[in-house]
Structures are given as C-alpha cells and as structure tokens.
Amino acid sequence: MAEWTFWGCLPFLVAALITDLKSMRIPNWITLSGLLTGLLAQGVINSWHGLLRAFGGAAVGFTVLLIMHLIGAVGAGDVKLFAGIGAWTGMLFTLQVVMYSVLFGALIGWLIVLKRREAVSRSRKIISRISGFILWKSPFLLKNNDSELLKFPFMLAVIPGSICAYLYF
C-alpha cells in the first residue's frame, strides 16, 4: 500500500466518524463517494493494476463486513464504508483494518459493559448460550435478541484500527 492511499481515505473516515457519533449512521454520500474516488484514484495513478487492486480491496472489505452485518455486529453503513476503504487501500490493508477495528470494538464493548456493571450477567448469558449450543447443536441458541445487543458507533473502533494498520503495515 502506498502512503497516499491512506491519506486519501482518511477524509472519508473522519466524515464517517462525525456522522456516526451524531446519529449512529454513515450516510451513502460518504460511503459511495469514498468508494468511487478510491476506484478513480487507483485507476488514474496505477492504471489497470491499480483498478484491479481497488476492486479486490472493495470486494474484500464489503464481504467481510457484510458477514459481520448479517450476524448483527455492524450496521449497513459500515459495510459500504469498508468497501470504500478497500478501494483506496487494497485487500491486505483492509483486512488489517478489520482485524484491529474488531479488537478495538471488543475493548470498547467491554469497557461499556464494565461501566454499566453488566459484566457478570452478560458473561452468564454467553456461557449459557455456548453450553446450549454445544449440547443441542442448534445455531439458534447463539442468536441474540436485538434488545440485548450492545450498540455504539463502530467508527470509534475503526479510526484507531485504521491508525494501527497504518503504523504496523
């Protein structure tokens, strides 16, 4: 990944952070403009090779976050945003951003749970569901109710995840 790709992607991440903090949503004008400018920039600067890298990165970012969306971990705006991140930065960097963002998201989630003093009750529910899944082999036992999900702006995890990926790539 060239350094300019991270800096080109950064304004879209900052815009997404601001809107996610305000409304827990990332609007399409941010995600689609990030995707299209990433494809355009890669195509103009690196020709067909860059365009292929951009499409590959967008596909990987979209697919991985779509799976996370289907299990209820992230919103649809995050899925589209990661397609834009992938278009700007390519597959490997995007996967690293996902990995670091999930780690930061887990840390933020546990900090929220500890602050609310829900750690014991949530841990019991997790152990109960996993035990039920092991005993009964039913994936429906792992599914959370929507009211039980812990929600916070995922961009709070994506920004430090992106910075860590940049520093360690």
From TrEMBL:
<comment type="similarity">
    <text>Belongs to the peptidase A24 family.</text>
</comment>
<dbReference type="Pfam" id="PF01478">
    <property type="entry name" value="Peptidase_A24"/>
</dbReference>
<feature type="domain" description="Prepilin type IV endopeptidase peptidase">
    <location>
        <begin position="10"/>
        <end position="109"/>
    </location>
</feature>
<feature type="transmembrane region" description="Helical">
    <location>
        <begin position="91"/>
        <end position="114"/>
    </location>
</feature>
<dbReference type="InterPro" id="IPR000045">
    <property type="entry name" value="Prepilin_IV_endopep_pep"/>
</dbReference>
<feature type="transmembrane region" description="Helical">
    <location>
        <begin position="52"/>
        <end position="71"/>
    </location>
</feature>
<keyword id="KW-1133">Transmembrane helix</keyword>
<protein>
    <submittedName>
        <fullName>Prepilin peptidase</fullName>
    </submittedName>
</protein>
<keyword id="KW-0812">Transmembrane</keyword>
<feature type="transmembrane region" description="Helical">
    <location>
        <begin position="26"/>
        <end position="45"/>
    </location>
</feature>
<dbReference type="InterPro" id="IPR050882">
    <property type="entry name" value="Prepilin_peptidase/N-MTase"/>
</dbReference>
<keyword id="KW-0472">Membrane</keyword>
